[in-house]
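Appendix C reproduces, verbatim, an entry submitted by the partner laboratory led by Prof. M.T., so that reviewers can inspect both the input and the predicted structure.
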Amino acid sequence: AQNQAMDQLVYEIRNPETDAPHFRKALSKIGEYLALNVLEELITKEVAVETLTGKIAQHRLVEESPVLITILRAGLPLNDGVQCVFPHSEVGFIAMSRNEKTLKSQVDYIGIPCLKGRCVILSDTMLATGGSLVDAIAIIQKYEPKKIYVIAAVASVQGVSRLQSSCPDVKIFAAVTDPSLNDKGYIIPGLGDAGDRAYGNKCHLEIEEES
């Protein structure tokens, strides 16, 4: 049932006719489903509860609270869904922009809580070339986390391969993996620019440097 629901959600974010509110809502739900998969990986403990009938029920609950980190701005809706599964988790943000000519990322902002010895769930809507996520993981690893999980709505075969090669200890959860990239580094068939789809097109201004 979850696979069918996920397929419906991926269709919605691919569909050019899906407006921004529904696009964000579908991404959030994808994040929620993928986070439930990560939940299965975390450490659990046995907990007993006495119900109103006076009887004891045994349950296994997650013992650790992962730190959630997302890459601005396209990762925000996906991270919202992850937060539905881990509502008490601390959240960190990394702002990265990609040079459309070199396809390399530039880090503009880092706001990350203490990660030492903790699990991290890093969410980014698109895992295309893998460059931005490899750079983000390098930043996160400086904070000495115990384990890093990556959540992506749409990944490319090339991006997954690069991430697995560069960061073999990182586990990837993607809603769908597409076969190729175009010459601009966009995933094919993909869905276009996820940030623009979610929040509107960016305005590119030519800013003159002061002499």
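The chain is about 35% helix and 30% strand. Additional entries are available on request from the coordinating office.
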